[in-house]
Amino acid sequence: xxxxxxxxxxxxxxxxxxxxxxxxxxxxxxxxxxxxxxxxxxxxxxxxxxxxxxxxxxxxxxxxxxxxxxxxxxxxxxxxxxxxxxxxxxxxxxxxxxxxxxxxxxxxxxxxxxxxxxxxxxxxxxxxxxxxxxxxxxxxxxxxxxxxxxxxxxxxxxxxxxxxxxxxxxxxxxxxxxxxxxxxxxxxxxxxxxxxxxxxxxxxxxxxxxxxxxxxxxxxxxxxxxxxxxxxxxxxxxxxxxxxxxxxxxxxxxxxxxxxxxxxxxxxxxxxxxxxxxxxxxxxxxxxxxxxxxxxxxxxxxxxxxxxxxxxxxxxxxxxxxxxxxxxxxxxxxxxxxxxxxxxxxxxxxxxxxxxxxxxxxxxxxxxxxxxxxxxxxxxxxxxxxxxxxxxxxxxxxxxxxxxxxxxxxxxxxxxxxxxxxxxxx
Length: 426
Ligand code: PLP
What we know:
The protein is about 35% helix and about 15% strand. The two termini are about 35 Å apart. Strand 7 (about 135-140), helix 5 (about 150-160) and strand 8 (about 160-165) form a beta-alpha-beta unit. It has a seven-stranded mixed beta sheet, sandwiched between helices. It has a four-stranded antiparallel beta sheet with strand order 15-16-19-18, covered by helices on one side. Helix 11 packs parallel to helix 14 (about 410-425). The protein has two domains: about 5-50 and about 320-425, Aspartate Aminotransferase, domain 1 (Alpha-Beta Complex), CATH 3.90.1150.10; about 60-315, Type I PLP-dependent aspartate aminotransferase-like (Major domain) (Aspartate Aminotransferase, domain 2), CATH 3.40.640. It has helices at about 25-30, 60-70, 80-100, 115-130, 150-160, 175-180, 205-215, 235, 260-265, 300-315, 320-335, 365-375, 385-390, 410-425; strands spanning about 1-5, 15, 40, 45, 45, 110, 135-140, 160-165, 185-190, 215-220, 240-245, 255-260, 275-280, 285, 345, 355-360, 375-380, 380, 400. The chain is globular and about 75 Å long. The chain has about 425 residues and is an alpha/beta fold. Pyridoxal-5'-phosphate binds near residues 114, 192, 223 and 385.
């Protein structure tokens, strides 16, 4: 281990620079991502807003161009070469997502616009069919709004209840309270695999096992987790697992819903129209097999190609080594940020992805983000679509730096230096 002086005049304590992680170097990833090489306000871009969206490798950008340049067609119904090629690209993307998630088969994967649409699909299809008066949906307080509001809407319609699961002071889900709240009224537990504000990784395997004792289903929101850790939905025993492509180096507008085969088979279709039918008559319509039954209309074919390429890119790295690197980077960033006077980090749960949400005494979070932007550093400020969680900390707003595999200790140093300078300006 070596120690480095943090930037800024005479700072103590020192942050310990991580030893290089065997099997992974962020430079390998950085060289593939063109946008990381631009400048912002005359400074090299430091992209620390990965929780909002990730930047795209050249391989993904090129896959989109190649698709539109050589294979663009509508899928499934066409009898010509391009239709067959586009269908093959789309369906092999589904197989890749299934493989990536450790799912039973490609038939368990439904393409959607993203996490939000996946949760709405489950709420409107499974929820309307399975929730009744007095039933409960358990939702931890740390959830993103997109894992709260769809449940509120369907619960109101079905006269069911959304029950918040409280947090411990460190920001992790209170597992004793969770065990107490579970009952035979619980139909569903909706929990994020990793919090977008605190980075806390929830013990979803254990939570799922407990929920299943009561016959409840479990939806895991993997929006923040998938880019940071290998996922195995069968090992988690999740009934539903959802994620957004754009948070895992793929384009916007594409994401996936995984559902266990028997759970998906028992769900009514959500949206209706072309592509999801078998045969239509004015008297009677029959539906296509799963998962096509849940994909009404023309899908986002090109972005499935982009997602496929992003998964290839990410899995070309040793994912365990990437996770180890990100853990080291998180430890480094946590230590380094602790040197900034007046900076308070939210959340200190034991198992976390590299998300650092903080307040800075004397400065509004938006002003902090604006200041950092002048130095080319992109972070996010606001309620992070998690107002109940921020209120748990008595806050309406906070600043968040969220890291990915292509971020470096040097970038963390630039963030910390800029924050020191802000504090020195008063
Ligand atoms: N869930 C979590 C934990 C998130 O962090 C986000 C986005 O930030 C979402 C859901 C919503 O994702 P999207 O806007 O891609 O649908």
